[in-house]
């Protein structure tokens, strides 16, 4: 077993090594958890009356192509369709990072706004920079944080057991 002095030194070194990656991970994690409260991260869904009939994906795409603000030229510019029946809206996410909200029946564009959730997820997991950053900095930092928590608990346990004797 480690001596208390070497355990404290290891605890400090691990703490210093994981500080910056963990601050980034914590901040981006908080942004992702609270994304529905911050339209800067993820635009709020605009509620509409529930349509009697819905636009087809083809008709939706044609309306997007017709509007240059959407930056959609064809199907390949679209990464995601989300249809929310309870809110009467079609959300389209583009590969350029935009979220277009449309009335599900008329196709009227309600909002075109940047959606930064995917970018924040990539920063959170470290893949924004490269898979090597994720594998060799973020993942070891997570293990370091686990070791930090365990060594901190061990030091705390030793502290209280020493005081009670």
Layout of secondary structure:
Blueprint: H1 4-33, H2 57-66, E1 78-84, E2 89-94, E3 98-103, E4 109-114, H3 117-125, H4 131-164
Antiparallel strand pairs: 1-2, 2-3, 3-4
Written overview of the protein:
- It is built from 4 helices and 4 strands; from the N terminus they run H-H-E-E-E-E-H-H.
- By secondary structure, it is of the alpha+beta class.
- It folds into 2 domains: 92 residues, no CATH class; 73 residues, Nuclear Transport Factor 2, Chain: A, CATH 3.10.450.
- A 4-stranded antiparallel sheet has the order 1-2-3-4, with no helix packed on it.
- Strand 3 and strand 4 form a beta hairpin.
- It is elongated, with a radius of gyration of 24 Å.
- The mean pLDDT is 91.
Give keywords:
2 domains, 165 residues, single chain, 4 strands, 50% helix, alpha+beta, 15% strand, Nuclear Transport Factor 2, Chain: A
CA radius of gyration: 24 Å
User: What structural category arises from helix and sheet content?
Assistant: alpha+beta
Strand and helix order: HHEEEEHH
Question: Please, what is the average pLDDT?
Answer: 91
- The first-to-last residue Cα distance is 20 Å
Side-by-side strand order of the widest sheet: 1-2-3-4
